[in-house]
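FAQ
Q: What does a multi-component entry look like?
A: The components come first, one per line:
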Amino acid sequence: MAKQDIPKAYDATNYEDGIYAAWEASGLFNPDNLPGDRPEAFSIVLPPPNVTGTLHMGHAVMLAIEDIMVRFARMRGKKTLWIPGTDHAAIATSTKVENILFKTEGKTRHDVGREEFLRRVEAFAQDSHDTIVNQCKKMGASLDWSREAYTLDAKRNHAVNVAFKKMYDDGLIYRGHRVINWDPVGQTTISDIEIVYKEVEATLYTFRYAKDFPIAISTTRPETKVGDTAVAVHPDDERYAAFVGKTFENIPFAGTTISITVVADKEVDPTFGTGALGVTPAHSLIDADIAARHGLAMKQVIGADGRMTVDAGTLVAGQTTKEARDTVAAWLRAQGLVEGEEKTMQNLATAERSGGTVEPIPMLQWFMAVRKEFERNGKTVTMCSMMRDAVESGKTKIVPERSEKTFFQWADNLRDWNISRQLWYGHRVPVWYRNDETFVGIEAPEGDGWTQDPDTLDTWFSAGMWTFTTLGWPDKTADLATFHPTSILETGYDILFFWVVRMMLMTTYLMDEVPFKLVYLHGLVRDEQGRKMSKSLDNIINPLDMIAKFGADATRLSLVIGSTPGNDSKLSEEKVAGYRNFTNKLWNISRFVLSSVEFPGTLVPSGAVDASATKVAGNQQSLADRWILSRLDTVVASVTKKLDANELSAAGEELRDFTWNDFADWYLEIAKIEKGKDAILMTVLETLMKLWHPFMPFVTEQIWSSFKGTTLMVEAWPTVAGHRDEAAEREFSVVQEVVTTIRNIRAMQRVEPAKKVVVTVDNASVLAHADVIKWLARLEDISLGDKPGIQLVLGDMDMVVERARLEKERDDLAAYVASTDAKLANVEFTSKAPEKVVAGMRAKRDEAKAKLDAIIAQLSS
RNA sequence: GGGCGCAUAGCUCAGUUGGUUAGAGCGUCACAUUGACAUUGUGAAGGUCGGAGGUUCGAAUCCUCCUGCGCCCACCA
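Then the predicted structure of the entire assembly, as tokens:
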């Protein structure tokens, strides 16, 4: 292939889209079309991006990591499936569309109505979906688009209804009137994990309900106190012991009348404030628990509209909570009931999506009973215990391993999950009512007069079923049999609780199987300074920009190399540029090889890469040839092992070192003077293309197809060919050292040009490579001496390279042997160390001794 | 308050069952360049592995404490 046929620099934008289109057209992303017999299956479901907009770096890192895993598995001959999909993300999407609606038309969802609103959300979701799909393709993700799914499409809706009905029938889903987290802005309930805490300043009031009330309490929310039904104190608190059990009836309080019972409860901290806690059962989850324990009455004083109810009394009824707070505080002051006011910092619960201040309110909602006991396989279990057992037993592993501890903590503390939402966009609760009748079913009931429950399900309900609904459940499909449990779930550690926990919960229950064998958690992509990327900081790096500028391959490498599971990584444009340089280096390595060998396409028969190298190269192999083939074998073995262990970064680094340092900087330089290396050059190049393909699919596919004409994506992964040659590796390292030393001498000479240097190389095997040394050290202009080896006259400073190196090594080894001897004597004397240790040390010492003897012999000959 | 981490070169980080002389990338500096590649090559400088103890023949690695950071959960009313 002529050099001028290949561009000097690799410009990714010229190739990537075309290559992706060709892959897609080949149908090879679909495991059913993969060539050969593939008994072992490998599957990943793509964590479905929310249809709320565009992909960010978090998605890019996810796509990069998963595509590496998937392409590696495919090349290893596994029946490989990676399922794409998107998530309807009920709250997030609704909120987004509501915001747009309000901004552009000044309307709320209620103004346009349920049907019209849903139409708009779906249009938005479709748009967003198309953008996301395009971005996945830009990243090179080898997703099987023929199996694409949506968390809210008809198939998934059917599955959700089946699951709901089953769990309802089994008593694991129930409807109950309980204190839940109400988001007054989003007008919906939210689960515990959808709460984010903001630190705000608040006033802590200490006061009494009435002048003659014996106990003072503290609160930052005086307005809720009209709903108090009790005061709780610690059981051991002697100050209040006399009052425990007493009820103070009909206390006039801020426009209403309250009755307060004094109870003793261990949850109360006697050291905080007055040591007494005013209990508001309807508007605090903690208080609701206390109330439940003591059988206290619950009085709702805040409504779903965020305003005080009629029950709150004449003084505050109809006011917002904020207004009521001031009103009650003013009333307390006027009555002379306040005993203290101080500013404190408080963690305010807000809704993650809408930003609204979360109000605990009692409401009739649907719940999943995660701690309810039932029988399964002859054992008494709960959903939580099943989920916990899956990880404890090792059926599902989590990397990094420390995340398993976090997972257990979660499994042990999970409360019943509020699954109903008052949103319109989502899976409608499959329950119908008529008078006093309730019907729970997969389809609407027959007959007239039925009304469906207006609520929808938490988005994580359908997301929790993602691994098996995408494979066809509840039908018994071939996909389900082949690909479930999935091999790996790869996702960010930040949604371990949101999603991974839900999947474990629902899959272990519904499938009696784990959803995945391995959870691989990646970290957050941060900016150069380690800050989160955010709009307000204006430090967002858009993956599409990076792809346009440096190519998808470079973008992928920059996200994968240098980051380890569970740890955040930093990204800068310079980093991506660095990997673009590497992409170009690989391109030019190929350009050089392909333009120097005569028949690149046929030199190495397809499917027999490794064996042919031995045959063709035969006995004419030089030291450099044996060295590079040995190194290649080492790298193939090591990279395969690392990828098997999902150590992507380490695998990539090793490959880069070999490609750049060993192959390009040494072997290719030698190939410029030692001829007849075509077969080896092609062997290394082809193997490199395969090894790099999972990481850099585009550039490798482009290079491969330019001389091979087949699809690299489905080529077989290289295997170890049996070229390991430790002697060659050792010997070559000496050559490298000699060349390096000479280069240094030349550099020194330039600094001190007056001195002359004579370099003598007297190592026989190194001598055999005089030409290589001369070439690499650029010695052609320097005269060679005649003996005892190559004498390179550079100046008048005598420097015997090999002798110097050996002498240094001898001294080091002698010191090591001596110190080991001393230690061994000590070990044997105390006899405390295990025999294994002593033996190990002795073996190492003996090895060093032997080496030392060899060096001494060589030096004295 | 409960839990999980991190601290290794100027910066970003590897270092997987404790083992000979602790590594890489970037950056810096010096030198090189008609050869596939200036998106290049060669080399140098730079580390008491946060501190103090301990276990061990041997510790960046294991244990304890201290210092300084980060994250998650709880939500003190």
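Q: Is there any commentary attached?
A: Sometimes. For this entry: Residues 217 and 274 of chain A are 6 Å apart (CA to CA).
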